[in-house]
Amino acid sequence: MSVRYPITGGTATAIASCVEEGVRRGALAPGDALPSVRALAEELSVSPATVAAAYQRLRDRGIVVTAGRRGTRVRPVTPIATGRAARAVPEGMRDLSDGEPYPALLPDLAPVLRRVADSFAAGAAPLRYADGGPLPELLEYARTRLPELPDGAAYTLVSGALDGIDRLLGERLRPGDKVAVEDPGWAALLHLIAAQGLVPVSMPVDDDGPLPDGVRAAVAAGARAAVITTRAQNPTGGAVSAARAAELRPLLRDVFVIEDDHAGELAAVPSHPVAGGAHWAYLRSASKPYGPDLRCAVLAGDPETVSRVEGRLRLGPGWVSGLLQRTLLELWRDPAAQRTVAAAGRVYDERRDALVAALRRRGVAASGRTGINVWVPVPDETGVVTALRDAGFAVAPGHVFRTAAGAGIRVTIATLRADEVEPLAAAVAAAVLPPPGAVLR
Fold first, then answer.
1. What is the DSSP letter of 148?
2. Where are the extended beta strands (E) located within 230-365?
3. pLDDT value, residue 437
4. The pTM is what?
5. SS (H, E, C) 255-273
6. Dist. CA 241–CA 160, nearest whole Å
7. Which residues of 362-377 are buried (b: 16+ CB within 10 A; e: fewer)?
8. What is the pLDDT of residues 370-395, one digit of tens each?
9. Contact in structure between 173 and 166 (CB atoms under 8 Å)
């Protein structure tokens, strides 16, 4: 910022509130640096302990992050409503950074919604306060679509995978508890963990899921929960193999395991659940296969955990909209919708595999076994992202996805055309690899 936002206050509460107001108004933007503890203490004529306490409160709320030499900065995403800012992708640039499914490959909702409307015209009753909750027929159908889960699992509905993870962590953990997370892993999950005041513990991953040694280390460090992506891991594209699931199961027996199967029907590889302990949960979201606006996810788990989530849900919003539930059920039952999802999965596989192969031909390491993203380790995120922008491609910098893992970039291939694969791979190689004849030191 050319003019620094003026932080005021004489107490930790007042200082923290002033910073929060700056974030809310947009005067403090994501990534903006706050003054050092000592500098702000001198400026406000308060003790360094007072400023340190204010910054700790802001960290506990997930508003700021302290990152070594980079100091204390506003988090990329905070639990403060600031209005929706436009994404900073220049006009005309190819946007491969958003992590979104391609709208043109989603099922057509119009005929499905007409059938839902016809069901009400034929006498279907809307859900009321007295009987609101998951539709029994939807839960029964969900059981048939998740045969890999234990027979004694309980089922309910939540408003998307992240809503489910939020509720699950809130039921089992308290601020200060440690959560094992994939590294690199889902940026939104890291922001959520920060907002809950939880402490992430790194679990390194490869194409087959979290590495056993990393899981052992996370458990030894005191992780009370672990969040694992079953397939289409974001950002690396990994998928938990049957062999890896068997290795991890005994290591996580005493840990609350949350498994996120956000890709669902899009994934070409089977799901291999890891959970084997007393408390576990498995989420199957509808957003990637059927559209982000369909805010539905099936939550399965041990009866105690599911009962807690469902009971707390009833004290708040009550239930996931019956209209959305009926829409999801119709999509599951509709052969045309299922063919569309299967076709979309094949297109994503072709685009992802083509980019990974093109990069590897140029000597660039890349991973992307499943899903809509490709992860490329890089020596310098800022330099590579800038070079790719100069070449006309916007990609996501890796720092938002990682806690201890090395630098990288994420490329979303959902909209990548065949004629763009080679130019993109060439641009990445030029940005990542040293020029011919360069002397490496």
1. T
2. 256-261, 280-285, 297-301
3. 55
4. 0.88
5. CEEEEEECCHHHCCCCCCC
6. 24
7. eebebbbbbbbbbbbb
8. 999 999 999 999 999 999 999 999 99
9. no
Report residue 353 as tokens.
Answer: 């595999």
Q: Give 42-71 pLDDT, tens digit per residue.
A: 999 999 999 999 999 998 888 998 876 778
**CA 128 distance to own-chain centroid:** 32
Q: How far apart are the first and last CA of the chain?
A: 36
CA–CA distance, 375 with 388 (Å, rounded to integer): 15
The CA distances from residue 392 to 94, 95, 182, 282, in Å, are 6, 9, 30, 39
pLDDT number for residue 325? 95
What stretch of H or E contains 13? helix 12-25
Phi, psi of 238 (to 5 degrees): -65, 160
Number of H helices, E strands in the chain: 15, 15
CB 352 within 8 A of CB 237: yes
What CA–CA distance (Å, rounded) separates 204 from 94? 30
Question: Do residues 320 and 134 lie in contact, with contact meaning Cβ atoms separated by under 8 Å?
Answer: yes
State the Cα angle at 228 between 223 and 230, rounded to 5°: 160
CB atoms within 10 A of CB 405: 20
